[in-house]
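Q: What does the assembled structure look like for these inputs?
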Amino acid sequence: MKATVLVRPKPGILDPQGKAVEDSLRHLGFKVDEARVGRLLDLVVESSDPDQARAEVERMCAELLANPLIESYEIELAETA
Amino acid sequence: MTEPAPRIAVVVFPGSNDDRDAALALEGLGAEAVLHWHAEPELPEVGAVVLPGGFSYGDYLRAGAIARFSPAMRAVAEFAADGGYVLGICNGFQVLCEASLLPGVLRANESLSFVCRDVPVRVERNDVPFLAGCEIGQRLTIPVKHGEGCYFADGELLAELEANRQVVLRYDGESPNGSLDDIAGVVNADGNVMGLMPHPEHAVESLLGSSDGAFILKALVERARERLFAEA
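A:
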């Protein structure tokens, strides 16, 4: 299955990268209230069972892909084409 | 009689770049420094371990996040659990945080700029092995050079750290990176693992601007010597 992991800075955590993007967008004349910068990971996992794939990706997030002190994550699954 | 030179391991990750400076500084202060390749799962008999600065694994994903899975890190964790002294400098500090051997996390500097300059840091306590040669309140001038040195812990964790007096070094004056509460260095609850963003190994010769880093490394060498040779 394909798994997409969205890693975001947790709400309330200062995100200097997001702030820089926000300021740049304003500088270009866009009306932006806030910008936050996270990370997107596209994975192809071996399992074809959604529950099993999700559990596996959850473990990947906990062990490596996100730091729970500062980041939250979301997992989206899709069939491999 | 000359004192025996305690062996101290400096772990070398792919992308470490201050390993030789750390080894040289330790040798100059009376240790026998051995460079220990990260893929080696067994540590030799050592009195202390140093995780040096650099950009292990290119800082991919998050600084220190990948280095913590190196085979050597398992041995370092066991060494620390046994009361061994572990000092993480800059990237080494980031690795220790990612490995949960130290609390908190180091994030991109608030300014988003890489900072490279001498900074004053204040010693908060001297009853941990690494700071035994310092006075409380002593101001040390040691260079920093990092892009991700902004220390962060959430409110609950920070309260715990302050209650346990685990913040051992703070930037004195303006913080170079936006660190929470000007935190420059922390220890674990037992006090045998310390991480700091400033580079003591770059401050051991007054010719190069400051020798204040020697206060920290010299204390580490002495504690390593006691650990290895005390019972002998």
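The first strand of chain A starts at residue 2 and ends at 9.
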